[in-house]
Amino acid sequence: MIVGVVLAAATQGLTLLDPSTLRPMQQFMLGSTSLLGWPQVALSLPLLALALPAALVGSRTLDALGLGEATARSLGLPLDGTRALLLALLALCSGAAVAQCGLVAFVGLVAPHTVRALGVSRYRWLLPLSAMSGGALLLAADIVARWVMAPHEQPVGLPTALLGGAYLLSRLAHSTGAAR
Fold first, then answer.
1. Which residues contact 63 (CB under 8 A, 6 or more apart)?
2. pLDDT per residue as tens digits for the range 74-86
3. N-terminal to C-terminal alpha carbon distance within the chain
4. Which one, of 148, 171, 168, lies nearest residue 159 by Cα?
5. Which of 52, 77, 79, 84 is deepest in the core (most CB within 10 A)?
6. Residues 6+ apart with CB under 8 A from 99
7. Cβ atoms within 10 Å of 128's Cβ, excluding its own
8. What DSSP letter does each residue of 50-104 carry, written as one string?
9. pTM for the whole thing?
């Protein structure tokens, strides 16, 4: 928390030095799809073409890890290598998405939770369905962001933060109520 406060103060100090950076910074912090087009799709496609097949290959290891690390190791699966590869791909894909859209809150949490709530538990299906669900969620949030205060477009991160936060809080309340 201390680091967050210090970095936020440094960020605010930089915007005081050059107020023209305030608008682009707000767009990044709240997420925006307003500047995306086909060139950005072309940039993302090779990452998707690399990440999705690799994730599907690693899905068996992810399923085994759900049973516990000791059980997964006893099955003779390459845990360390698969974990490192999937973590690197996740970081690369997340970084590329954030670089293009900014910080769009909760899509990466809500999409897989929604797919799991539908009864999908095997990673072979969970990974591609979560990716499609996340895309549909971002599209719906973008439509809402453009429609609510038309003709002024709101950042796409506003509806995802409000709805995603409410959804995850309700899931948390449900899971803690079930644990009692």
1. 122, 123, 124
2. 988 888 888 898 8
3. 30
4. 148
5. 77
6. none
7. 15
8. HHHHHHHHTHHHHHHHTT-HHHHHHTT--HHHHHHHHHHHHHHHHHHHHHHH---
9. 0.81
